[in-house]
């Protein structure tokens, strides 16, 4: 590969070694989908414990951003804005599995 991004395409018998990546896709009742994926043992364990169609409880942490400002001149900063930035996925546990009923 060059610095301009020019590459050579290969097809046919090509051997490539990559580590497996485990993924789980969840869809909430509002039809919003999200994915958690990775090559680590935590993602592998999640992938192995859940089954297609399982109803799950999701554990997550909310990541917030706070904007602070001294609004009353006491040299102490108060929160003037709190914004939810993202959810960090922690785990999912099935509470109903159609494949087991």
Key traits:
101 residues, mainly beta, two-stranded antiparallel sheet, 1 helix, flat
Can you walk me through this structure?
The protein has one domain. Helices cover 9% and strands 46% of the residues. It is built from one helix and four strands. The chain has one helix at residues 41-49; strands spanning 22-27, 33-38, 55-69, 78-96. The strands form two sheets. The protein has a two-stranded antiparallel ribbon. The protein has a two-stranded antiparallel sheet with strand order 3-4.
Helix content: under 10%
Rg calc: 22 Å
The total domain count is 1
Strand content: over 45%
Low-confidence runs: none
Helix/strand order, N-terminal first: EEHEE
Q: Could you report the average pLDDT, rounded to the nearest whole number? A: 89
* Principal-axis shape: flat
User: What structural class do you assign from the helix and strand content?
Assistant: mainly beta
The number of helical elements comes to 1
Oligomer state of the chains in this structure? single chain
Largest sheet: 2 strands, antiparallel
Strand order of the largest sheet: 1-2
Please outline the helices and strands.
Blueprint lengths: L21 E6 L5 E6 L2 H9 L5 E15 L8 E19 L5
Antiparallel strand pairs: 1-2, 3-4
């Amino acid at each position: 590969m060059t610095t301009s991004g020019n590459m050579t395409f290969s097809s046919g018998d090509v051997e490539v070694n990559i580590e497996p990546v485990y993924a789980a896709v969840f869809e909430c009742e509002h039809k919003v989908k999200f994915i958690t994926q990775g090559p680590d043992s935590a993602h592998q364990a999640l992938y192995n414990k859940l089954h297609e169609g399982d109803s799950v409880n999701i554990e997550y942490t909310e990541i917030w951003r706070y904007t602070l400002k001294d609004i009353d001149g006491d040299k102490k900063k108060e929160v003037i804005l709190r914004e939810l930035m993202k959810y960090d996925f922690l785990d999912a546990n099935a509470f109903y599995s159609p494949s087991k009923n």
